[in-house]
């Protein structure tokens, strides 16, 4: 007999941004599966089992969750932010399609959450107010040429661009190259946001221009948002600036 | 003396998807400003004033909210979904920049929410599991040529594509033209999701191929998600299908 599996978005770090549906779903499960630091954000409950794993093992973690559900457990896989954006939901469906035939009988639900991108944008103002793209700079799972092609297209067509996974110790040069590709299409005055550790105690939101942006300042906990040609920095005396992209747009010739 | 202004995302329709921060912020304000159907979703509180307006008047509504805050009120502007994605936050910052100098002294906070895009994706599976774009098909505020250029770029670079505002009575042909542009770059078997009235009582999630997609089925309450070349439909016997985009990608030559 089959149990059920929920893939739950915890939102960014702060508990005030987790939805009631996510909280209720987590409370009702017998087994929690996820990357250890995300599991640590879920309140402890008597009788609930926790299966913590390392960050890199997404597909193995997805299979483990499906095995538990197939054996009759009520399982939640936890993700930070939204589970559907560069996160666990995709891995679970891949494991379902490529794994045991019984996996397809499991009742699966995705519980959305406030994504890192939306939380970062809110802290900076409204940079995603008009057409935008989200691109992961990680080349662990795709050729760098695919990343380059997408950056080029997004920059040329004047999208606001959100960069997930901009840098890590193993990927130190990718963000600098991304900035160079984008700078061929965008003015040096284009607003850039470095959003570090959003909604955590060491949160830092830095607003600057593309000319000032230093790729070395990004790490695994940073999200980058680059404005379109219409995006504006709204400065205020003695207060932090805002970045916003107007709802209207004009045709920009390259 | 200045009051304060919060721009609050209610999430999609269901109250189980509103964050605790949004609920607390709404409860603590003296004045609520917004499009009437969104205001109707906020629980009534004694002593709180409501300022409902029509859908088209975003900038006027933003100015009204700033005027109330400038007069010392504690104001919340409500948006469905996330207030930063094709919604009110951008209008408020524009009104702040172009309006009275005192508007810039107002304490403004954006409270993010689960966007329509994330909620629709969760109901269908994990279509946003990899690089994606969000494009508004409305040409009320931008030339149609800008829309075409962005559709062309997003399709050629193999992004998953989310279409906001796909159709209305005044804009009946835009979605058909968008599908034709995308079909020049994407196979007829590309998965397409029509997400109608997500999390409402008449919610309808339809999964089909690009060849089958009928633009006439979309209206103002529909969100469209088109897969990349890697996006898959996971069919299941006797159960609804899922759509997911794997976390890995390969270079696709046009």
List the keywords:
homodimer; 254 residues; five-stranded mixed sheet; 13 strands
3D structure, described in words:
The structure is a homodimer of 254-residue chains. With 254 residues, chain A is an alpha/beta fold. Chain A is 27% helix and 26% strand. Chain A has seven helices and 13 strands. In chain A, the strands form three sheets. A five-stranded parallel β-sheet of chain A has the order 3-2-4-1-5, with helices on both faces. In chain A, helix 6 links the parallel strand 7 (132-136) and strand 8 (160-164). In chain A, helix 3 crosses helix 4 (88-98) and helix 6 (144-156) runs parallel beside helix 7 (174-183). The radius of gyration of chain A is 20 Å and the shape is elongated. In chain A, 53% of the residues are buried. The mean pLDDT of chain A is 94. The interface between A and B is large, with 80 and 81 residues.
Quaternary organization = homodimer
Extract low-pLDDT stretches of chain A.
Answer: none
Helix content of chain A: 25-40%
Q: Which pair has the most extensive contact?
A: A-B, 80 and 81 residues
E-strand count of chain A = 13
For the sheet with most strands of chain A, the description reads: 5 strands, parallel
Mean pLDDT of chain A: 94
Rg result of chain A: 20 Å
| Sheet with the most strands: spatial strand order of chain A | 3-2-4-1-5
Tell me the series of helices and strands of chain A, N- to C-terminal: EHEHEHEHEHEEHEHEEEEE
Cα end-to-end separation of chain A = 59 Å
Q: Label the overall shape of chain A.
A: elongated
Number of H- or I-type helical stretches of chain A = 7
Structural class of chain A: alpha/beta
Strand content of chain A: 25-35%
């Amino acid at each position: 007999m089959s149990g059920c599996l929920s893939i739950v978005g915890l939102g960014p770090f702060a508990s005030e941004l987790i939805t009631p549906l996510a909280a209720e779903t987590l409370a009702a499960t017998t087994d929690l599966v996820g990357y250890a630091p995300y599991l640590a954000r879920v309140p402890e409950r008597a009788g609930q089992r926790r299966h913590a794993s390392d960050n890199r093992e997404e597909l193995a973690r997805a299979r483990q969750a499906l095995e538990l559900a197939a054996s009759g457990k009520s399982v939640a896989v936890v993700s930070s932010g939204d589970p559907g954006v560069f996160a666990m939901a995709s891995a679970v469906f891949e494991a379902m399609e490529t794994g045991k035939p019984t996996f397809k009988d499991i009742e699966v639900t995705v519980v959305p959450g406030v994504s890192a991108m939306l939380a970062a944008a809110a802290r900076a103002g409204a940079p995603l107010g008009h057409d935008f793209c989200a691109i992961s700079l990680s080349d662990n799972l795709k050729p760098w040429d695919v990343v380059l092609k997408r950056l080029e297209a997004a920059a040329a067509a004047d999208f606001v661009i959100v960069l997930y996974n901009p840098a890590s110790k193993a990927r130190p040069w990718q963000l600098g190259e991304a900035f160079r590709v984008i700078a061929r299409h965008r003015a040096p005055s284009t607003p850039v946001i470095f959003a570090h550790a959003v909604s955590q105690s060491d949160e830092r939101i830095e607003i600057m221009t593309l000319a000032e942006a230093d790729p070395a300042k990004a790490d695994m906990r940073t999200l980058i948002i680059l404005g379109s040609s219409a995006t504006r920095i709204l400065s205020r005396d003695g207060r932090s600036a805002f970045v916003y992209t107007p709802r209207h747009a004009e045709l920009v010739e390259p």
